[in-house]
Design brief:
single chain; mainly beta; five-stranded antiparallel sheet
Length: 163
């Protein structure tokens, strides 16, 4: 069983731009920096300036979202008051069509999550979670996620402030 930890780093560069990258726990770089303009919902592979190619921020495609709120269960994470939710949804993976290759049907994976969320933070940008329908209502600071594709695997995501 792989028990590796991925650390998502993010740094506010200016009013609208966030720089993010991923490392292993030992700081070996996994993904080089991407810059996100949170006001436009765009991403860049270099600091954005005139003429740089921009990419739309891509959210996961889901259906059948069910959310249970447990507002009486509270916890402070990095000084922010959170409450617990549980949710389930089907994540849709669309296959790209490539000329000369057979077409594959879309793959659907059932996701179940337990999260500690806040309503104090309002942002569609999250460094490791890209479900727009949830981010429109809550901002998760801790996520424990299971999926139907890999039974027994649990993915944990925790946001920390390392000042």
């Amino acid at each position: 069983m792989d028990n590796s930890i991925i650390v998502y780093h993010y740094k506010k560069v200016d009013e609208n731009i966030w720089k993010r990258w991923e490392t292993k726990e030992n700081n070996d770089i996994l993904k080089y920096p991407v810059f996100t303009d949170v006001s436009k919902g765009k991403e860049y592979y270099e600091y954005p300036y005139n003429g740089i190619q921009e990419y739309s921020y891509i959210f996961e495609q889901i259906k059948d979202l069910k959310i249970q709120e447990f507002r009486d269960e509270k916890k402070k994470i990095s000084g922010i008051q959170c409450f617990k939710i549980k949710c389930s949804y089907s994540q849709i993976f669309k296959h790209r069509k490539i000329d000369g290759m057979p077409e594959f049907p879309d793959k659907i994976e059932l996701m179940e999550s337990e999260m500690w969320v806040t309503e104090e933070i309002r942002s569609l940008y999250h460094p490791a979670f890209k479900v727009k329908e949830i981010l429109e209502k809550y901002y998760p600071l801790y996520i424990k996620q299971k999926n139907s594709l890999v039974p027994g695997m649990i993915r944990k995501i925790a946001l920390h402030d390392f000042n």
